[in-house]
Amino acid sequence: MFKLINEIVDGYEPSAFELTCILKLKEDEAEYLFNKAYEVKKNTSNNEIHLRAIIEFSNYCRCKCYYCGLCCQNQNLKRYRMTPDEIIENAIEANNAGYKTVVLQSGEDMYYTEDMISYIIKEIKKNCNMAITLSVGERSYEEYKKWRNDGADRFLMKHETSNEALYNMYHPHSSFKKRMKCLRWLSDLGYQVGSGFMIGLPKTGEEDYAKDILLLKSLKVHMAGIGPFIPHKDTNLKEGKMGSAFLTMKAVALTRILIKDIQLPATTAFNVVSKSCCNQNSKLKNESSIKALACSGESEENNENVKKIFRSGANVLMKKVEPYKYRKLYEIYPRDEDKIKSISEERREVERLIYSMGFNISSRMDL
Ligand code: SF4
User: How far is the CA of 176 from the centre of ligand 1 (A)?
Assistant: First the structure.
């Protein structure tokens, strides 16, 4: 298996079966994969981490995704929308705190018309030196085109699973074909496109994740969010089992060695899952690293988990920056409350955490 990993690093194009075998590696063998992914990351990205500010500006959504706490059938969620000017002010504050990219994310909320999003993009571009990533779901070709012309740089839209039948079952309001069509439109329009998938989504396994990784390669995406499934109590998949942090790390590492220059975020979902593993098994904690990271002000488990995923090839960290009153309401899966701090304070803490792990912070806007 080590030979196969080396060949992939050297440019060999593996089959889905070969990727599946790597995803099934046991802990002692997987270390080799993690070390190789870390090497590739260091060689391709100058050992830099990209910090992104994310503004989750609306938790209204017209969709019925089986796994998501924001789905339109969830009556237990208090819904919110930020006004366009509130979003713009929030983005300016994030830019002043040092962020070079803002991710504007919401449910599929048609309240925000083409013109409203256009206004938000233009105002942010006028007032900030910052790349804009949109994550607003499936819209028309004309809307994507307008927003690209207004200055939006990137678009995130996960494919969630490459298993078409399952995709169609878990997304009864849409279809796998439609999602692929949207992803191709975005690429054709010149967006840097991000996609991604879930580990542990019920009825999926290593064979599916191998195909997910190959799909990312064939779509030529710039970024991929690979995170574990976390059951949410108000969804159809509430009885599902949480995805594995270890398998997520293997999928991230494998994606890194196959698509070397891809941007791979350390997802919040990964942090939630690995924290729960750490709580069950305190042996997973490494005392010396925890001491080194304590200065960050974040919890020890959080820091250790972020470090683990960065050592497996991830190189992007997204930090929520919307006002605290909204953060708890944007709950795709359950997570802990944050302590209240300013955007600049939070940014400085994240910077200290990243430096303490031995990484640099990217100042580039184009990646
Ligand atoms: S995953 Fe996205 S599109 Fe689906 S219900 Fe949640 S917010 Fe809406």
Answer: 14
Residue 317 bridge partners (DSSP)? 51
Q: Would strands 48-58 and 360-361 be described as parallel, antiparallel, or unpaired?
A: parallel
- Do residues 309 and 270 make contact, with C-beta atoms less than 8 angstroms apart? yes
Quote the pTM value.
0.90
Ligand 1 in reach of 107 Cβ (< 6 A): yes
Query: Tell me, what's the pLDDT at 299?
Result: 59
Among 299, 239, 238, 306, CA closest to 268: 306
Spatial distance between the Cα atoms of 193 and 248, rounded to a whole number of angstroms: 21
pLDDT reading at 126 higher than 60: yes
Cα(153) to centroid of ligand 1, in Å?
Answer: 22
Nearest to 258 by CA among 208, 308, 216: 216
Angstrom distance (rounded) from CA 16 to CA 198 = 17
The 10s digit of each residue's pLDDT in 312-344 is 899 999 999 999 899 878 876 666 666 678 999
| Half-sphere exposure of residue 163: CA atoms within 13 angstroms, side-chain side | 18
CB 350 within 8 A of CB 307: no
Nearest-angstrom CA–CA distance, 308 and 278? 12
User: Was domain 2-361 assigned CATH 3.90.1150.10?
Assistant: no
Pocket mutation for ligand 1, best pick of 108, 110, 232 (most atoms within 8 Å of C-beta) = 108
Q: Which amino acid is at 203?
A: K
Q: Are 242 and 227 in contact (CB under 8 A)?
A: no
